[in-house]
Design goal:
Blueprint lengths: L2 H21 L3 H10 L4 H25 L5 H21 L5 H21 L14 H18 L4 H11 L5 H26 L4 H25 L1 H23 L1
Helix pairs in contact: 1-2, 1-3, 1-9, 2-3, 3-8, 3-9, 4-6, 4-8, 5-10, 6-7, 6-8, 7-8
């Protein structure tokens, strides 16, 4: 692949890392970019996982340093996410992804409406509405499976789950979503490493852009809080829905 194309992909990854650190949905930029650059679909999904993992890890570390992540409270959800992501990435070559394309637009439209019309959340989150086990099985594992199979929009769905089911406030939900997103990315990446579908030259070049964008995005989210997160969540989930609907038309 030409150097100028790799540089453009790295720039796309930088923008995606910034957006993903705040609201999720960075894969809506990088996966189409890889496909447009001529990377085969399965290789594009695998390479997208490689570069995206660096961005999510950077954002997770930033939120961890800010004291927003309690790994002990997330242990069950992390385990369930890993199982779901492993199953999804193992089946990615056999599952009809057209089914996911038909379902995901409506799930993402619902997410966009939720973020758009729900009143601004209180500074302190109320008690969780379901148990940790129910959250793990009913939300973390299914989204992890989707992330293993396809991925774009998974970060926004994790955030929505923490808001609606675990009743986190917006900034905490964003931080916790990064932990589950990192889990599903690492798990799927491990499977793709074995399968040999990763383009390392492209993926590692994009990873540099991802880390720069993710650091800037998480810093912006911590500084501006819900003011910047909410509109980006609405925008990214709406964009995901429109893109997938166009793909199924």
């Amino acid at each position: 692949m030409d150097l100028d194309i790799i540089l453009l992909l790295s720039l796309a990854a930088l923008v995606a890392g910034f957006i993903d650190a705040i609201a999720g949905g960075g894969g809506l930029i990088t996966l189409p970019a890889l496909l447009i650059a001529g990377v085969p679909p399965t290789d594009a999904i695998a390479t997208n996982k490689l570069q995206g993992t660096f961005g999510v890890a950077t954002a997770s570390a930033r939120y961890w340093h800010a004291g927003l992540i309690d790994l002990r409270s997330l242990a069950t959800a992390v385990a369930a996410t890993a199982v779901g992501a492993a199953a999804g990435s193992l089946l990615v070559s056999n599952v009809d992804t057209a089914v996911l394309h038909r379902i995901m637009p409506f799930a993402l439209i619902a997410a966009a409406l939720y973020f758009a019309v729900t009143p601004y959340l209180r500074e302190h989150a109320p008690h969780a509405r379901i148990s940790a086990l129910a959250f793990a099985l009913g939300a973390a594992a299914p989204v992890g499976f989707y992330d293993g199979v396809f991925g774009p929009g998974a970060g926004s769905l994790y955030t929505l789950a923490f808001l609606a089911l675990a009743a986190n406030n917006l900034i905490t939900a964003t931080a916790n979503a990064k932990v589950l997103n990192l889990t599903s990315n690492l798990t799927a990446l491990g499977v793709f490493l074995v399968s040999g579908h990763i383009n390392f030259a492209v993926g590692l070049a994009m990873a540099i852009g991802q880390m720069i964008g993710a650091y800037a995005g998480s810093h912006t989210a911590l500084k501006h809080g819900t003011w910047i997160i909410r509109p980006l969540l609405v925008a990214t989930t709406s964009a995901a829905a429109i893109k997938l609907l166009m793909g199924t038309a």
